[in-house]
Amino acid sequence: MTTPLQPNTVLKAESVRLEELPIDSGTVIWGEPRTSISELATIDSVTVGVWEITPGVVTDREVDEVFVVISGSAVVEFENTECLLHLTAGTIGRLRAGTRSRWTVTETLRKVYITLPEAKDAAHVTTASKVTDR
């Protein structure tokens, strides 16, 4: 579902209507999580949208993305590392393309995301070296 975000306008992220986005059952570890999405705008290959997931545990392969959590809570773990992201309302995060993750969602989580086009030269991509759970 596309809810166009026109220039010089605003939308309330918590009120954006979403369309179901089926989850591959092979990625579900626990529960019956459901995801939904609405792409709001694409500008020069950068996409902005709203994504939501209900409680459960799923695995994923990430895209290059920056996001802000609007509501809910989850913990994201990454394969082959002890890094944990504790997500709650107001959290700002960054995901790296290709990273394998495990999402443990305890309260329906809604986020505004910005996906970036795949970098041709990953050397210019920088990431935070420290993760906090404030």
TrEMBL record:
Pfam families: Cupin_3. It comes from the Bacteria. InterPro entries: RmlC-like_jellyroll, RmlC_Cupin_sf, UGlyAH_Cupin_dom. SUPFAM superfamilies: RmlC-like cupins (SSF51182). Residues 45-113 form the (S)-ureidoglycine aminohydrolase cupin domain. PANTHER family: CYTOPLASMIC PROTEIN (PTHR40943:SF1), CYTOPLASMIC PROTEIN-RELATED (PTHR40943). This is Cupin.
